[in-house]
Amino acid sequence: MNKKVFRLQKLQGHGSEYCSVPLCSVSSRYNSVVSFHSFPMDEKVKTKWLENIRRDNFQVTKHTKICSVHFTGDDFVEGSQRRRLKGSAIPTLFQWNQYGQVEPSRGVWEPLERPEPPNMDVDEGSVEDGSEMTCQDYCSAPEAAALDLALIKNKELKKEVEDLRNKLEQTQLHSRFGLQRFAASDEDIRFYTGFASYSHLMAFWELIEPATHQMIRVTNSKPTRETGATRKPTQTLPTIDEFFMFMMHLVLGLKERDLAHRFHVHQSTVSRIITSLANFLYFLLGSVCIWMPKDKVQAYLPEEFGNFQDTQVILYCTELHCQTPSSLLLQSEVFSNYKSHCTFKALIGMAPHGAITFVSGLYAGSVSDREMFRQSGIIPLLTPDMAIMVDKGFLVDDLVPCKIHRPVFLKRCTRMPAYDVKHTQSVARLRVHVERCIRQVKEHKLFDTVIPMSISGSINKLFTVSCLLVNYQNGPLVKAWSKF
Predict the structure, then answer these.
(1) Which of 172, 241, 366, 468 has the smallest count of CB within 10 Å of its CB?
(2) Model-level pTM greater than 0.85?
(3) Which domains does the chain have, with CATH numbers?
């Protein structure tokens, strides 16, 4: 007998035919493969159908049908396009005669049957002789050779784990962009921070590190509703790596987006770190008085200033190119006729031995040297026993109480007298060092390019910090002045 059975398939149809067999839930609405068959016209076969489906006193209509699930494969006519039953076909597959019954699943608390233990390999000779079977004594002490081998293996594994841990630390160190990654290379430290060596940088860090614990950080946290206090900002990087990032921004002029990719932090985090450290170093380094008393200047006065021994400070103005503002009023204020560009202007003073002793704030490029000198705040620091060395453009004789060393103007003469030529050459030969000092400041690439207006709010602090850092980063301007 052919055991082919038509199985249910859950394919949605559009009919509304149902199977009349009790406990059968098949309908044409959800089964497009199962066919439905009407009761036969033959009364004997029809009676047999009613007996098999166990429906007594059941009224059969033209809509009463039985699905193909209850028939065997031999009950259908072979070769026909539509599924047709043979005239003698009788439904025989029902739930009560174990057709389609699924073995009930095992309960959670029912114990599982344990498999039989495998047959142990036994020496045939011992069984035949009737001798007893001996089992392994697991309580007996292991041999000394086995213990030594285990100890050696244990030491080797510990050494291997230690080596892998060291390699992992080295890999993490090289994958993380931070100061410790370049600690062994003074050349890299000089490139990224401007300090001569790693030990030089760490010496400066030891000076400022105690104050970093009191640094007020810029944060985007909002005050809480309960207390009104601002949450303490979370620190993503170690403080020394934040300082390293700040120096890279200052020395290399790297953009915040570039620094964010290097240190694996968000761009807004980089912006907050730079602003926080700019404020911190501005107030920390600015709290140290860089203006030197006259006796200190005389103690470190180089021999080249023999004819100008009363010189207290060499002054010079510098300009930083900035982005052109969109406002016409601002354009007229920051436009410099000397540079033919929008600029910020600052006055820098250098002691004769090369240290920066005065830094003014930044002014608009349209301000004259005389007006900037008057507003910079250096006049109250000067006394009659001092002298300042300036360029030709500083016409400030009526503003200062001291002597001025300045190159001589040609005036209306066709030729300059010999003593004026010598004086001009002597002043120019000494005054050029302040320009070299300013060049050290502008080696911080942030100020050697066009400054965007987006950082105009913090550029004054950044420039002041850059000037003050020059005293810590670099050696003497002239090798002969190294003793100073």
Answers:
(1) 172
(2) no
(3) 1-102 (no CATH), 183-286 (no CATH), 294-481 (3.30.420.10)
